[in-house]
């Protein structure tokens, strides 16, 4: 089973943005982040989920647990619907990636339970400013 923690952050709304992911699998942990350019906070959250799921494609597992502190992302996934663009397009990409797993759990978690992914996303913003 893969546990994937994702977070996106923006310095401004929109503003310089970064994404961070923590991947747990077979008692190993990967911490990844990257600068993504100028986006709103919600866009960064969706893009973090996409990038995190893309990073998991090479890991052999039929089960994934996705954790995010973004209610917008988790709600869209649960409903399999997002009304506005670009969220609808982002959601379609997320659903396509999730559909490759036999079993999927998507959970909203409080921000304080997603600290590492948040720190990684914020660190990516700082890198973009330097």
Automatic annotation (TrEMBL):
Keyword terms of this UniProt record: Hydrolase
InterPro entries: RNase_H-like, RNaseH-like_sf, RNaseH_domain, RNaseH_sf
Domain RNase H type-1: 1-126
Superkingdom of this protein's organism: Bacteria
Pfam families xref list: RVT_3
UniProt-listed Enzyme Commission number(s): 3.1.26.4
Broad class of enzyme this protein falls into: hydrolase
Coiled-coil blocks: none
Keyword Hydrolase: yes
Any GO MF annotation of the entry: nucleic acid binding
Descriptive protein name: Ribonuclease HI
Source organism (scientific name): Brochothrix thermosphacta (Microbacterium thermosphactum)
Lineage of origin: Bacteria, Bacillati, Bacillota, Bacilli, Bacillales
């Amino acid at each position: 089973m893969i546990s994937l923690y994702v977070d996106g952050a923006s310095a401004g709304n929109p503003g310089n943005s970064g994404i961070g992911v923590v991947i747990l699998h077979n008692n190993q942990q990967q911490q990844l982040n990257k600068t993504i350019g100028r986006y709103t906070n919600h866009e960064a959250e969706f893009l973090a989920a996409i990038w995190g799921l893309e990073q998991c494609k090479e890991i052999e597992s039929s089960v994934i647990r996705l954790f995010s502190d973004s209610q917008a992302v988790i709600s869209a996934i649960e409903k399999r619907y997002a009304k506005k663009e670009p969220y609808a397009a982002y959601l379609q990409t997320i659903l396509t990636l999730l559909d490759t797993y036999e079993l999927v759990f998507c959970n909203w978690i409080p921000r304080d339970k997603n600290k590492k992914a948040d720190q990684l996303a914020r660190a990516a913003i700082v890198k973009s400013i330097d």
